[in-house]
Amino acid sequence: MRAICLAWCALILSAVAPGQSGDRSYARKNSFGILTAYSHDSSHIILGVAENRELLDIGLSYSRRLYLNNVVNWQYDGEILPAALNSDPVQVTTTTVTFTNPPNTFTSTLELPTEAACRPLSSSGSAGPNGPTYSFVSTCTRRWVMGEGISPIGLQWNFLPRRKLQPVIEGHLGYMYSTEDIPVNDAGSFNFTFDVGAGFELYRSQGRSFRVEYRYHHISNDETATANPGIDNGVLQVAWVFGR
User: In CATH, what number is assigned to the domain containing residue 48?
Assistant: First the structure.
């Protein structure tokens, strides 16, 4: 047990120890990243009110060092997302109306993304003693909407740049375009985005690292469409970063 504890301590110390290559910091001048981000749910965190939305992003990032000292590595950071997918809950309602004189039956199905979380419903009745009868059954499903996005405005701060394990804070402004209106009909297919987050970057060498962050991510159209419920997600993002 003692040997295991010593080995574990040595691993942690090696991850957070300062770089040993003279006075060189773990801070590249130009960095490129391959990233993926996911959120399994949405709720009213700060601005958005649309519930139960999933988010999946796959993209690339570019960082340029702006200022470096022993405390912080301040960088410009931009992201491009060729695949930005949003999943909405959809209420599927099937309504059946039956007439007795003359006998006839009409059935219609309506599928609509819901602003709140979807819930199954059902009901039936009649329009008077001799009137037609009706029934409806409402079930829940999901739709994935494909989109793309770019965040050309962004800043990133890596703290303790002489160490391999560095705390990270960053934020971005951008926009996304989707193939359908999100998160509901009439909300528009063009939306603005912003995010702020924090995490850690672990350098395996001067040129390569892994970054893990948790971000608050917001999507909305800024009242440019009829509806604007907005989406707030807590997003986990992982990136492989390289450069020099």
Answer: 2.40.160.20
